[in-house]
UniProtKB/TrEMBL annotation:
GO terms for molecular function: aldehyde-lyase activity; metal ion binding. GO terms for cellular component: cytoplasm. The keyword Lyase applies. It holds the Pfam family HpcH_HpaI. Residues 19-244 form the HpcH/HpaI aldolase/citrate lyase domain. This is Hydroxypyruvate/pyruvate aldolase. Keywords: Lyase, Metal-binding, Pyruvate. Its cofactor is a divalent metal cation. It catalyses: D-glyceraldehyde + pyruvate = 2-dehydro-3-deoxy-L-galactonate. Belongs to the HpcH/HpaI aldolase family.
Amino acid sequence: MPAPLNPFKKALSEGETLFGCWLGLANGYTAEIMGTAGFDWLLIDGEHSPNDLPTIRDQLQVVSASDSHPIVRVPIGETWIIKQVLDAGAQTVLVPMVESADQARELVRACRFPPVGDRGVGYAMARASNFGQTTNYGPTADAQICLLVQVENRAGLAALDEILQVEGVDGVFIGPADLAASLGHLGDMMHDTVQSTIMDALQRISASGKAAGILSTDDAMTRASLDAGARFVAVGLDVVMLAQAARTTASKWRDGLK
Ligand SMILES: O=C(O)C(=O)C[C@H](O)[C@@H](O)CO
């Protein structure tokens, strides 16, 4: 029995555009609710949300049971954490702050078993192999791993062309908030300079044949990103959705009675 097909990786390779949502509430219960929404993918955020490996595992379990594909963003691009989330069953990994082709090549190796990579072999007792039931997991796993790297600062932009040449990187995600900060526009990702830089980067990624990704909650920016070639696009964040809905409802009645 081979490693399970990665439908997200397959869809990207077939040129589909996939819409997703960020999960920052860091628990399985709300992740299960988000799994009913109908997004193509859900991003379990290990970088800017209070997640640890057990909460990431819980969310992988419930999202995997939904029609949405789970993507795990690791807090940093290091072998030890990539190994752990892959063993926990993640097949698509997003790595922040990638700044060079050498770093990208190290990340590819971290996602692959020897001899081509250096991912540790412990899947016999891991969720990734369905606890050993996927008898041929080892030799078939690499092909189903989707590695997405984030370019989100000046250094990454300067190395983008070289990063795009790294075999094993399936997609490049532009982090708009960090990129804005790196360009000197902290908190203002809608600044003209930031927007033009984002769209140029998305076009370059798309032209390379790799999948381009972005996060945007601004409709005009989302449409511009799609026009620039973005094909995995996060269009919402669970934390923001909850906070905005709660504040709106409270204000509607509290302020409405004044
Ligand atoms: O730089 C960015 O923007 C991202 O990488 C996405 C953010 O980290 C996400 O937490 C939304 O703010």
